[in-house]
Amino acid sequence: MRADADSGEVEGSDPSAADLFRGEAGSACKVCIVHAEHFSQPFTGGHERPVPVRSGEQRPPVVSFTLVRPPVHPETLGALITSPAVIIDADVYLRPDLSSASDIYAEATPPADSILDGFVEYHRLAQKNVFMEEILSHLETPVLAGYADGRILGGNEAFLSLTGYSRYDLTTRNWTVDLASLDFQALQENVLASLLETGRTQELHTELQTSGGKFVPCQVSVFLHKDEMGYPLFFSAHYHPVKDSKMLGSQESNSGQIFSDSLQYAMKRSIRHPDYAFVVLLMGIDNAEQVLLQVEDHKSFLEMLAKRTAKCLRTLDIPAYLDTEKFLILLDNVPDVIGAVRVAQRIQEETARPFKLGQSELRVTCSFGVVMAPRDYKDDKEMLKDARTALNRALQRGERQIVIFDDRQNSEAVQFLRIESGLRNALLENEVSMHYQPIVHLETGATHGVEAYMRWNHKRKGLLRAEWFLPFAEHSDVVLELEAWAVRRACSALKRFQQVMGENFFLGLNVSLRNVLRHGFIEELTAVVSEHGLSPAAIFLEVREEWLKYFAERFSNVFVEVEKAGVGIVVDHFDATHISLADLHRFPLRGLKLNTSLQNDPGMLASLSSIALGTGLILVAPGVEDATRLESLQEHGCTYAQGDALAPVMDEEALAGYLVGSGVRDA
To answer: pLDDT at residue 376 above 80?
Structure first.
């Protein structure tokens, strides 16, 4: 990545764009052309054009962006943000401590290592721009958006109409100081600090100061908006003017309005973006009449119930009162109906705990009606009607029911719930077992390790392979129970196998994404390994290639933990579609398990074999079922193989006998 600064003509850029920038921004504007280049080898050279260390390498295409540094007039800034080839240096617009330093920036050339920050800030500004255009403009509720330091990004037409401010006036003010009466300024400052610290929606009543100096009593809900990496982007404050001061505490009407606004936006967004999906949950108290008869203070009880419900939600989900017996919940950006069912289950578990009401305890159960969009709904009223229908069906069936309005989706959810319940019973009744397949060293023919597989001995369907039930289990906490049991069982078996084959005999364990990213998993794993007297180096965790790409930041922490513990990581189903061969050195991997496509490609096998020799990676070819492929793998330097051509999958007893009979002990 390279940056060239110039205050004259900009070579290689769009001349009309450069002229526009200078004409609008003034002569002090610094224009910087950014060349984004990707090479598989490190670069040499300082400010000269980077050249790969390895000569003769083909140069990839160059992508140019234009980085505009301040000062830039606000109207010009808004126009520039809409161009995909322009990056605005956002420091002076986002950080108050630099707001007076534009003259310094105008003279400075941005260092090369700061250009990445420019890309990040451009992305952040783009997301804020989308928020302003797609959300605020569609809401009738007065809404204001601002930055983490309290400075205001803007407001919608309803907010401008309520307060009398112009758009430019708003951008010169701070939410915690300039838009509240003196009595409420400290409160708004504390609310913003709490929002940034917890990420949870904040509710308050305040007095909104208008441009004319008047104060409007308002109920306000403040939300934190984050990017896809979980970093705070900005906040939005939804204002609900209150004419009667007695209504300031009316959380029900306020939350209902926020829910309505959010649902309308979600429906419009689903029309513009077909890949976007959301869910409406309608929660009802089972046997509500009998339950509420036992409660003297309905308001306090419903507040406790609402708090427990909110604990089970993400920061972007919106809960709301419907009446004294029902709650509405909007689940934003939920990919499938099983995800919605899991949220409903968490709420059922949380609300099933006894409520302390004075000297007595009250036990409550809840049922859910679920509607998933998009489903060609014309308006939010139609969607809520279907949610009520689904909830009525659930309440009629009994306690703790979950019913999806769509019959096909409901069948999918019912299947998930049956499998989840069946797996819990299977663990209790010893119906789950571990099987193993030998991993053979191709040069010596010796068995050096095994891969562990989970099986479910189903009462009606017989022995089920893991791919039949684990995809469902991964949507549930039952996967954590299954894998904890599997780790313990497999380590016990490995100790037995090592008594025959030696301490270098290794075990490959398949783990779910949810578990491998879970804080504390590696620590729990090493504790079990130590408990069985095993070396951590004998344990290989098998992960998917795409995980390393799409969860790169979180896996960087996993690799730190794994290296510290001494456990190895092997990439399963590797086919070089998500990670290039040139990028393999970036990951502290122990080995690769090759996809069938690579096993059948002699050129790729040769390249991988060369990389393995230089890096110490082991190559494993799973699923080998014929002698022809086995010969090809041996010829091209593959280290290990497994499959029916070598040895089938066996239970622990059968494998123990096989290892004894093989007579080949690892050195």
So the answer is: no
- Structure tokens given for 453: 């597989």
Q: Which domains, and CATH codes, for the chain?
A: 2-122 (no CATH), 135-249 (3.30.450.20), 277-405 (3.30.70.270), 420-662 (3.20.20.450)
Dihedral sign computed on CA atoms, order 89, 95, 96, 101: negative
Average pLDDT rounded to a whole number, residues 507-525: 91
User: What's 446's DSSP letter?
Assistant: -
Gap between the terminal Cα atoms of the chain: 49
The answer to pTM > 0.85 is no
Task: Measure the CA–CA gap between 226 and 220, rounded to whole angstroms.
Answer: 20
- The CA-CA-CA angle for residues 267, 268, 273, to 5°, reads 95
pLDDT given at position 31: 43
HSE toward the beta carbon, residue 116, CA cutoff 13 A: 3
How far, in Å, CA of 174 to CA of 147, rounded?
9
pLDDT mean over 99-104: 39
Q: What is the pLDDT of residue 116?
A: 47
Q: DSSP letters of 281-349?
A: EEEEETTHHHHHHT-S-HHHHHHHHHHHHHHTS-TT-EEEE-SSSEEEEEE-S--SHHHHHHHHHHHHH
Q: Which residues contact 618 (CB under 8 A, 6 or more apart)?
A: 570, 590, 591, 592, 612, 639, 640
Q: pLDDT tier at 242 (50, 70, 90 boundaries)?
A: confident
pLDDT of 110-138, one tens digit each?
Answer: 444 444 454 455 555 555 555 555 555 66
**Which CA distances in Å does 174 have to 169, 188, 608?**
11, 11, 57
pLDDT at 50 over 60: no
Would you call 143 exposed, middle or buried from its count of C-beta atoms within 10 A (0-12, 13-18, 19+)?
buried
Which tokens belong to 622?
A: 């799973």
